[in-house]
Amino acid sequence: MPSSPEHFAISHRLHQLAAGANGPSVSLGWVMSQLHERAFGLFLLILALPCCIPFLYGIPQIVALPLMFVSAQILFGRQTPWLPERLSTREVQTEALSRLAARAEPWLHRIEAVSRPRLAALTHGPADRIVGLALVLFSASILVPLPSTNTVPGFAVVIVAMGLLQRDGILVILGTLLGTAWIGALIVAGATLISLLRSWIGL
């Protein structure tokens, strides 16, 4: 994954992206083409932010597949993100992008205030391949068609993405732990539900 020593305000970068959009909507391919520096982390962040909104259904499921696809590229060591045409042509409303940047700004400022380069080896190869695997699993859990199941893994991906952007291995660890705990809770809940159903029907 390419690295860059320059520091930039991620929240400001999102506002720049929304301001640079031409027309009422933009494609995911256009969004990716604008992310010249640290494209993996920024694209993960943009895709994951809508997933953090509780009780939102539809948009998380739309962005989950591109999110999973980009995460898989980290897993396999690709240096720059890429989307096939079927995913890159998916569109987001420019107004929604602006609202997302405004809503996310205070939270991103808080994360930026406490983050700094540390344990940076976790934010690039080969350690980031393990992070890529975790992100694939978190993205897959967003696809679960149940209310608010997107929120926790969405936050996990956002924290990991901020860690990659800020070269902060502590944030990467925290996000990975949060997402892993969520996956574990889903597995336990699923196993419990299956056990109850089997007992109810007498199997």
Report on this model:
The structure is a single chain. With 203 residues, the chain is mainly α. The chain is 65% helix and 3% strand. The protein has nine helices and two strands; from the N terminus they run H-E-H-H-H-H-E-H-H-H-H. It has helices at residues 10-19, 28-34, 39-48, 59-75, 85-88, 94-114, 128-142, 151-166, 169-200, and strands at residues 25-27, 91-93. It has a two-stranded antiparallel sheet. The model is unreliable at 1-7 (pLDDT under 50).
Question: What is the gist of this entry?
Answer:
By secondary structure, this protein is mainly alpha-helical.
In terms of topology, how is this protein built?
Blueprint: H1 10-19, E1 25-27, H2 28-34, H3 39-48, H4 59-75, H5 85-88, E2 91-93, H6 94-114, H7 128-142, H8 151-166, H9 169-200
Antiparallel strand pairs: 1-2
Helix pairs in contact: 1-6, 3-4, 3-8, 4-7, 7-8, 7-9, 8-9
Low-confidence segments, given as residue ranges, are 1-7
Structural class: mainly alpha
Element order, helices and strands?
A: HEHHHHEHHHH
Global mean pLDDT:
82
Estimated helix fraction: 55-70%
Task: Give, in spatial order, the strands making up the sheet with the most strands.
Answer: 1-2
Largest beta-sheet characterization: 2 strands, antiparallel
What is the count of DSSP helices, taking H or I runs of 4+ residues?
9
Number of DSSP strands? 2
User: Kindly, what is the distance between the CA atoms of the first and last residues, rounded to a whole number of angstroms?
Assistant: 50 Å
